[in-house]
Amino acid sequence: DAAAIESFVLAGLDAVLSDRFGSRLSLPVRVQRESLRARLRRFARIQADERQKGWRIQCGELRFEEATFRLAGLPIVASLDRVDVHEGSGQMRVLDYKTFAKRKTASEAHFVPATGEEESFETLLDGKAVRWFDLQLPLYRALAQFRWPSESPPVVAYFLLPERVEESGIDDLALDSSLFESAMSAAETVAHRVRNGIYWPPRAVQYDDYESVFLGEDPASILSSESKDFLMGMHLKAGP
User: Fold this and answer.
1) Do 40 and 9 form a contact (C-beta atoms < 8 A)?
2) Biggest CA-to-CA distance, the chain
3) Order of strands, edge to edge, in the sheet holding 169-172?
4) Which of 44, 61, 62, 161 could form an SS bridge with 80, CB 3.0 to 4.6 Å?
5) What whole-number distance in Å separates Cα of residue 181 and Cα of residue 19?
6) If pLDDT is split at 50, 70 and 90, which confidence band does 208 have?
């Protein structure tokens, strides 16, 4: 019942706002409240539709800390926003809530065009060469399979709730066995580098608070040879 779900989530929002900001909300908080209400109303309709299709929420905020798997010896710590199970088929689905300002599909978030620089991060998507940019959903699938090893591979998806509420919805990341294996291989490579103190080559990121330090130049041309050696893990190979 979309109306019942809407009433429930809006009451929850009001309770959180009252607890954090009191009964007299400032103008910025009231503006944010209206934005949140619009998204939650849309959520209520989508949730009602998904429940009608047979999807039932099994758990939320499923935390992996001590009981988890490892990559290159590093434990994978995470919290799954939500796990659903389809009542008819038994199919499992892991959902991650996203409140992007602008709608971004799971595929758009996880892949960028291939550069040919590092084959360990590249794969094929619909016949096109792409590079893994984000490994969140493949790792969530791996965590779910670790938790429920006897189940078939879960579907992994974003529950999108962007500013333009009409663009809200559930967007799957289609992971066949080949894509999933390439993602886990890339994750293993990342974990191995972290474990060995290798943070090279530098990568452009969307939000970089330190970009101004390099005055708009390529870090490789600015850093000293000692700094580059350190980021490349050369100090670990040198020995005592």
Assistant:
1) yes
2) 67
3) 55-64, 78-86, 92-98, 155-160, 169-172
4) 62
5) 45
6) low
